[in-house]
Specification:
The chain is of the alpha/beta class. The chain contains ten helices and twelve strands. The longest helix is centred in the C-terminal third of the chain and has 19 residues. The structure holds nicotinamide-adenine-dinucleotide (NAD).
Length: 307
């Protein structure tokens, strides 16, 4: 049996993700959007790429949820994206309503699925989705840290003139302006970047990572990033579909880990077929802990609006 992934939101992130999933040939894709004709048109266009690129993934686009039934994974990208000058939190109320409905509709048709939430403000939206579906915390995960880490890795590689493949980076906390890029745990070929760059240089890269989303919004003017966000989501999708047990920074509902309870925050987790299979705890120094807690508090106050 082929695997099936539902992607809700056939906009920039959703459609590019559908393309990336099809190109791996690992699953069929049900693409859903409220815009009439858009998911149908994009799904057909992607199907017609199959013979050229050599994939057999079936893609079906629709404005309803019937075709999403029995999906192995559900990815929520539906909602509004940022415009210049908007923070992720400006999207809170509108996207909260959308994500609640989408999570309910998809969750009841695929009760065993692993759900990944991309819609911003992502950590809060993941909480909304978990509440709306009643899914256990292991199966409702937010995408943010993989993207933030990829941005940090890109900037490290650019600065040192090394392959991105040599770089590893960890970004903790909420996917927002208060995210915590951890330079001590970020390495190039196993060497901590703190041994390879001056503190001022690292601070500059950390700052650019924190503003990585806004930098692209400012350039595009009409929307936000989607190539790297869809690539980051694909990495999580593949980890689950192939039961890879990959350690990736994701937003998960913490129950005591890192001394935090009952709130979503970005931490390293083991991703496999069951979804989040383990929270990996790393030691934080006082400054890192303070920054992490500040970031967690920002997510908590966003979630309070949906209690
Ligand atoms: N977590 C992250 O790291 C990250 C990265 C990039 C984008 N995002 C977020 O992802 C979301 C999507 O971004 P985008 O660039 O694809 O935006 P987009 O505007 O291109 O696409 C969003 C799509 O959602 C659809 N939609 C709206 N309401 C819907 C509903 N009720 N049901 C189904 N579909 C609905 C729209 O018609 C549109 O096609 C935004 O909230 C954005 O901020 C998050």
């Amino acid at each position: 049996m082929r695997k099936k992934v539902t992607v809700v939101g056939a906009g920039h992130v959703g459609a590019t993700l559908a393309q990336r999933i099809a190109e791996t040939d690992l699953a069929d894709v049900a693409l859903v959007d409220v815009a009439e004709g858009v998911p149908q048109g994009k799904a057909l266009d992607l199907m017609e790429s199959g013979p050229i690129l050599g994939y057999d993934s079936l893609l079906i686009g629709s404005n309803g949820y019937e075709d999403t039934a029995n999906s192995d994974m559900i990815i929520i990208t539906a909602g509004l994206a940022r415009k210049p000058g908007m923070s992720r939190d400006d999207l809170l109320a509108a996207n909260g309503d959308i994500v609640k409905k989408v999570a309910e509709e998809t969750g009841k048709r695929s009760p065993k699925a692993v759900m990944i939430v991309v819609t911003n403000p992502m950590d809060v939206m993941t909480f909304v989705a978990m509440k709306a579906t009643g899914f256990p915390r292991e199966r409702v995960i937010g995408m943010g840290g993989v993207l933030d880490s990829a941005r940090f890795r890109t900037f490290i590689a650019m600065e040192l003139g090394v392959s991105v493949e040599n770089t590893h980076a960890f970004v903790l906390g909420g996917h927002g302006d208060s995210m915590v890029p951890l330079s001590r745990y970020s390495t190039v070929a196993g060497i901590p970047i703190t041994e390879l760059m001056k503190k001022e240089t690292i601070d500059k890269l950390v700052d650019r990572t924190r503003n990585g989303g806004a930098e692209i919004v400012a350039l595009l003017k009409t929307g936000s990033a989607y190539y790297a966000p869809s690539a980051a989501t694909l990495e999580m999708v593949v980890a689950v579909l192939l039961d890879k047990k990959k350690i990736l920074p994701c937003s998960v509902y913490l129950k005591g880990e890192y001394g935090v309870n009952d709130v979503f925050a970005g931490v390293p987790v083991k991703l496999g077929s069951q979804g989040m299979e383990q929270v990996v705890e790393v030691k934080l120094n006082v400054d890192e802990k303070t920054a992490f807690m500040k970031s967690v508090d920002a997510v908590r106050s966003g979630c309070a609006k949906f209690m």
